[in-house]
């Protein structure tokens, strides 16, 4: 394989380059004007302008012919590619840029590729600049021969199956073969597979651009104009017109390039054209009704429109009579008079002779939610009517609660379940959306930013399905950008949007994020007295979890807190929720819980019905959503505390095991709730008697053995099974406070009261140190822990203050001094 | 240079005219799809938008039957008129398309000769 200037100059593409330069460059246009101007001026004074007109027509005519020759013949790749030289197979742009170089070398090839529009597009998509590449090659120069480079490029062309050797294949070849460039790619966080996806996206983008230019294409004209006369035989029936929207009529005028869920689309087409004869529990074929199930955002409505498009296109090409896809205006039908539904059914029966119909019910639940027998009857009549095929749409929750529970209706449907689209499909949809916006709003967004958008949506947005929620986030991000005056959408913009949506911080682990983790231990200590070892283990486990954000399939961290009552287990959990997830929705000043803190009191789940309150179940008034699943769906970033977990019913514990293992819970409605962004903490008083009898060692090394012995004791008592304990990332022991810690706790609580009084009443309170000693002694009880402290403070200090304020006139700015002699015992 | 001229000549006198004819046939098919003569002829007498009155199945009511007959006549008349006009327009468009294509083809073929002729005329006039 070789490539020389001589060979390049022999190619038709080179001729095209030269001709374009001579006849169609900006310089040549100026030349034409320069030549014509004096002639025009001259002719204006002469009577006979026919010769000038003739000359003009001839010149323009030949210029146009030349232009067509260049476009149709010279720039286009030859049909039979196999036996041609490398030069012959180069694209127009490659030849254009290469011919301007001083020599043909590997670096010249790369430079030529990077200078073309398509090459620039690819580089921009992967966030790599020309300068960065050239710089990298200056540091470690290319040491391959021209022949090797040509071989790489040929390999890339074969692999990518492009028609000609163009700039994108060239860039790809160099990026994957040159180590210095490979590491540049890795630095942008993209794999080589991603690179291939980018090229595919670019090819698609190029195809769309080409297609936009070809407006007079006959196929396009047919699509726009449609076929005249076919709808003239169809019934003009007012009830039908009023209550439905005919989407088949206009469906062809919208280009549908990306169609996801192609398998489902094919099945749907087969069902409605009668080709699908697999029985689904009742008679198949004629009169088949379809139920399309899926989460919001998985593309059910788009699928219906795609079906209408395909049906119409097929019917045109086969010359068959049209099927009209009619969208039912359900609200209108159901809100009408008692007659309206009867009229509708009659209308449907009447018009069915004039053509085929598919009735689409987009909001099937509306018929059933109100539990009105009359509405249900309407639906049944529609489904059972032989002349009408129904395509109903519903989301999973509604299906389980409203449809599945009614076998009569359920059996009339063939069900197609629409999963979330795959990553590939979602990216394709996002790219199409982006390309649409790019043209209109001059937007730029790299492939990587789109990929991160998709990943973050999957991770952090619990409700809704793909690709819908990703497209929503993309649109939202673009809208937010408009106000800022920028037109490049960066990764940070995407993260901002998602942070706002989920009310959580998903910004990159730089700056604030990193600092938060590093200082987490200190900040937790500000909330909790003592428990250094416990907090230390906790934070260590969390640090490990947080950094593996991308690959995790389980909750961020799962912990079992052991220790007697009142030593700070719940307080630690609350403090962690505040510090880790933020106190975004405000904390009340007395230490109310942040919104990210979900407490489940296992006392209330001590019997089997507890499962229903967790994950939902059938109640008397229909399905009630589970309290836990609902809260985590709404706010995926939360800390869930299972207090006194030993009190829960074993079946409830089994449900929790699923959550600990897989990071998900499937509720009674079939909806999956993701726990991958939660911290799970279970507290227990189990083994408290053992703890009393065995003193906790001071040295951290001995603690492991101590903990092991405690766990053995707990297991021996059959409080928990070994499998259950093993599910947790860490078992954290909370030790009873030392006298010094009790003292500090007393000071902490007193401080709280003093601050409150100062801020609310403007009164300064000082307390004798004797009182602190007193509180320290009386405030700690081995059985009740620090709860005793709270009680003592209420009894002594707060009562005293209340009495004082009632019996004395105290103004803002006054001081109250409390001595131990003041306190009643 | 000679090979390039040969390539141009081949393209000009062979490939491009073939392309023009192929283009014409594509537009012809497209127009045929947009105005489907066969379908319009088959449904020439169908009532316009299927506007009909149904006569009751049981019993004989002369006035209702007469009303239905009149409406049917009217609807079919309207339908036939509109369809005939459409067919007419379709034929006209086909004629236009054909004429345009023929003119285009002829002009293309003879343009080089026209050029030579025009240059001769122009130089003579100067």
Description:
- The complex is a heterodimer of chains A (825) and B (126).
- By secondary structure, chain A is of the alpha/beta class.
- Chain A contains 39 helices and 19 strands.
- Chain A has five domains: 5-211, no CATH class; 222-418, P-loop containing nucleotide triphosphate hydrolases (Rossmann fold); 423-502, Helicase, Ruva Protein, domain 3; 512-733, P-loop containing nucleotide triphosphate hydrolases (Rossmann fold, 3-Layer(aba) Sandwich), CATH 3.40.50.300; 739-818, Helicase, Ruva Protein, domain 3, CATH 1.10.8.
- In chain A, the strands form six sheets. A six-stranded mixed sheet of chain A has the order 1-3-4-5-2-6. In chain A, strands 10-13-16-9-17 form a five-stranded parallel sheet, with helices on both faces.
- Chain B is an all-alpha fold.
- Chain B has one domain (2-109).
- The model of chain B has no long low-confidence stretch (mean pLDDT 89).
- The A-B interface holds A 12, 15, 51, 54-55, 58, 61-62, 65, 68-69, 72-73, 218-219, 221-222, 225-230, 232-236, 316, 319, 350-351, 354 and B 4, 7-8, 11-12, 15-16, 19, 26-27, 29-30, 33-36, 38-40, 43, 46, 48-51, 54, 79, 82-83, 86, 111, 114-115, 118-119, 121-122, 125.
- DSSP helix fraction of chain A: 55-70%
Topology, number of strands of chain B: 0
- Rounded radius of gyration of chain B (Å): 28 Å
Unreliably modeled segments of chain A = 277-287, 584-592
How many β-strands of chain A, per DSSP? 19
Overall pLDDT of chain B: 89
Distance between the termini of chain B: 32 Å
Spans where pLDDT lies below 50 across 5 or more residues of chain B: none
The total tally of domains of chain B equals 1
CA-based shape of chain B: rod-shaped
CATH class of the largest domain in chain A: Alpha Beta
Strand order of the largest sheet of chain A: 1-3-4-5-2-6
Class inferred from helices and paired strands of chain A: alpha/beta
Structural class of chain B: mainly alpha
Q: CATH superfamily of the largest domain in chain A, please?
A: P-loop containing nucleotide triphosphate hydrolases
SSE run of chain B:
HHH
Number of helices of chain A: 39
Mean pLDDT rating of chain A:
80
Strand residue content of chain A: 5-15%
Main beta-sheet annotation of chain B: none
The number of domains of chain A: 5
């Amino acid at each position: 394989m070789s490539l020389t200037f001589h060979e390049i100059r022999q190619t038709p593409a080179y001729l095209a380059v030269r001709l374009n330069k001579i006849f169609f460059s900006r310089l040549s246009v100026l030349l034409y004007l320069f030549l014509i101007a004096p002639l025009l001026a001259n002719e204006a004074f002469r009577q006979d302008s026919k010769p000038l007109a003739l000359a003009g027509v001839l010149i323009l005519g030949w210029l146009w012919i030349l232009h067509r020759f260049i476009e149709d013949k010279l720039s286009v790749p030859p049909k039979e590619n196999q036996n041609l030289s490398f030069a012959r197979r180069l694209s127009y742009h490659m030849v254009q840029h290469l011919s301007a170089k001083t020599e043909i070398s590997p670096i010249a090839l790369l430079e030529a590729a990077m200078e073309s529009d398509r090459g620039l597009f690819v580089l921009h998509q992967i966030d790599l600049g020309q300068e960065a590449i050239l710089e990298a090659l200056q540091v470690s120069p290319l040491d391959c021969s021209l022949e090797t480079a040509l071989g790489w490029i040929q390999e890339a062309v074969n692999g990518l199956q492009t028609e000609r050797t163009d700039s994108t294949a060239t860039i790809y070849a160099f990026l994957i073969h040159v180590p210095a460039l490979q590491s540049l790619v890795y630095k942008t966080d993209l794999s080589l597979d991603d690179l291939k996806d980018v090229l595919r996206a670019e090819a698609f983008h190029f195809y769309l651009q080409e297609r936009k230019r070809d407006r007079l294409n006959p196929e396009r004209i047919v699509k726009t104009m449609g076929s005249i006369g076919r709808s003239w035989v169809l019934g003009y029936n007012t009830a039908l017109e009023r209550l439905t929207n005919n989407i088949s009529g206009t469906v062809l005028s919208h280009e549908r390039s990306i169609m996801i869920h192609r398998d489902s689309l094919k099945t749907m087409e087969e069902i409605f054209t009668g080709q699908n004869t697999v029985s689904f529990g009742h008679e198949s074929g004629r009169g088949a009704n379809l139920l399309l199930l899926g989460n919001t955002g998985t593309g059910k409505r788009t699928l219906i429109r795609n079906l209408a498009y395909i049906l119409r296109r097929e019917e045109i090409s086969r010359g068959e009579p049209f099927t009209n896809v009619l969208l039912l205006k359900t609200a209108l039908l159901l809100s009408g008079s008692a007659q309206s539904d009867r009229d509708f059914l009659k209308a449907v029966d009447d018009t069915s002779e004039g053509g085929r119909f598919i009735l689409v019910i987009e909001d099937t639940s509306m018929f059933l939610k109100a539990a009105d027998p009359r509405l249900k009857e309407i639906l049944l009549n529609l489904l059972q009517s032989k002349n009408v095929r129904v395509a109903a749409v519903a989301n999973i929750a509604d299906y389980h609660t409203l449809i599945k529970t009614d076998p009569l209706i359920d059996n009339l449907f063939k069900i197609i379940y629409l999963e979330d689209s795959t990553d590939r499909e979602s990216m394709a949809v996002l790219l199409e959306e982006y390309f649409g916006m790019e043209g209109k709003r001059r937007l730029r967004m790299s492939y990587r930013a789109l990929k991160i958008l998709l990943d973050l949506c999957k991770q952090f947005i619990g409700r809704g399905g793909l690709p819908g929620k990703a497209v929503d986030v993309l649109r939202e991000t673009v809208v937010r950008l408009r106000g800022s005056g920028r037109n490049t959408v960066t990764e940070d913009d995407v993260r901002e949007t998602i942070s706002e949506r989920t009310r959580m911080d998903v910004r990159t682990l730089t700056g604030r994020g990193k600092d938060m983790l590093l200082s987490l231990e200190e900040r937790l200590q500000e909330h909790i007295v003592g428990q250094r070892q416990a907090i230390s283990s906790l934070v260590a486990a969390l640090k490990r979890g947080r950094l593996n954000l991308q690959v995790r399939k389980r909750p961020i961290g799962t912990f079992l807190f052991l220790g007697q009552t009142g030593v700070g287990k719940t307080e630690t959990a609350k403090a962690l929720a505040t510090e880790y997830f933020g106190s975004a929705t405000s904390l009340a000043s007395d230490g109310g819980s942040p919104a990210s803190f979900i407490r489940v009191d296992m006392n209330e789940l001590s019997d089997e019905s507890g499962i229903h309150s967790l994950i939902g179940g059938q109640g008397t008034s229909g399905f009630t959503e589970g309290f836990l699943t609902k809260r985590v769906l709404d706010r995926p970033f939360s800390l869930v505390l299972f207090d006194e977990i030993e009190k829960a019913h074993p079946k409830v514990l089994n449900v929790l095991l699923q959550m600990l293992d897989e990071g998900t819970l499937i509720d009674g409605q079939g909806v999956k709730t993701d726990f991958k962004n939660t911290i799970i903490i279970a507290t227990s008083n189990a083994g408290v008697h053992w703890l009393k009898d065995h003193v906790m060692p001071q040295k951290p090394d001995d603690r492991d053995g101590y903990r092991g012995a405690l766990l053995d004791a707990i297991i021996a008592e059959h409080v928990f099974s070994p499998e259950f304990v093993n599910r947790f990332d860490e078992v954290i022991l909370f030790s009873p406070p030392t006298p010094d810690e009790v003292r500090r706790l007393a000071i902490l609580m007193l401080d709280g009261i003093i601050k409150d009084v100062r801020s609310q009443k403007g009164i300064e309170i000082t307390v004798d140190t004797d009182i602190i000693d007193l509180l320290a002694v009386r405030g700690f009880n081995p059985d009740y822990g620090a709860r005793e402290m709270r009680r003592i403070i209420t009894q002594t200090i707060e009562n005293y203050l209340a009495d004082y304020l009632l019996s004395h006139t105290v103004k803002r700015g006054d001081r109250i001094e409390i001595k131990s002699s003041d306190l009643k015992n | 240079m000679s090979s390039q001229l040969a390539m141009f000549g081949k393209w000009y006198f062979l490939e491009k005219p073939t392309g023009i004819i192929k283009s014409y046939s594509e537009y012809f098919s497209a127009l045929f799809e947009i105005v489907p003569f066969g379908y319009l002829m088959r449904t020439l007498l169908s009532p316009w938008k299927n506007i009909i009155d149904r006569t009751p199945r049981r019993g004989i009511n002369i006035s209702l039957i007469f009303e239905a007959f009149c409406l049917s006549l009217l609807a079919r008349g309207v339908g036939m008129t509109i369809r005939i006009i459409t067919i007419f327009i379709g034929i006209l468009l086909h004629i236009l398309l054909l004429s345009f294509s023929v003119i285009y083809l002829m002009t293309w073929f003879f343009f080089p000769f026209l050029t030579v002729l025009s240059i001769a005329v122009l130089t003579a006039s100067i």
